[in-house]
Hints:
It is built from 7 helices and 5 strands, in the order βααβααβααβαβ. The chain has helices at residues 6-10, 19-28, 36-49, 52-66, 76-89, 93-105, 116-124; strands at residues 2-4, 32-35, 70-72, 110-113, 128-131. Strands 3-2-1-4-5 form a 5-stranded parallel sheet. Helix 3 (36-49) packs antiparallel against helix 4 and helix 5 (76-89) packs across helix 6.
Amino acid sequence: MLYVESSALMKLYxxxxxxxxTLHTVATEPLRVTCGITEVEVRRNLVRHFDGEELARxxxxxxxxxxxFEMVELDAEVCVxxxxxAEETLCRSLDAIHLAAARRASPYxxxxxxxxxxxxxxxxxxxxxxxx
Length: 132
């Protein structure tokens, strides 16, 4: 199971270093998961990097792509776990939510991220990481 967070998903829409690795990794993983925070963060970043017809195109593609992901519900248990992760690792709040969502999906989920601080926090709580 692969938990794909915002920094990784963004590489599918804006060519960057590691975009091909990300595309291959996401395409070959049969069980992809994420949470609603990812959509919020990616949509925000799309608006920062695109405009006009190109923005409309990548926004449509994001909506199509998200249908291939299992979405982890951000319920009270996930929030409590996120708070514990933040206390334990001192990571940023949204990073803690992503990691709690990944753990909710599976304690054995691998996190695909290119955010070094998030990767450090994931490793600190025993999660496998790809990317950063």
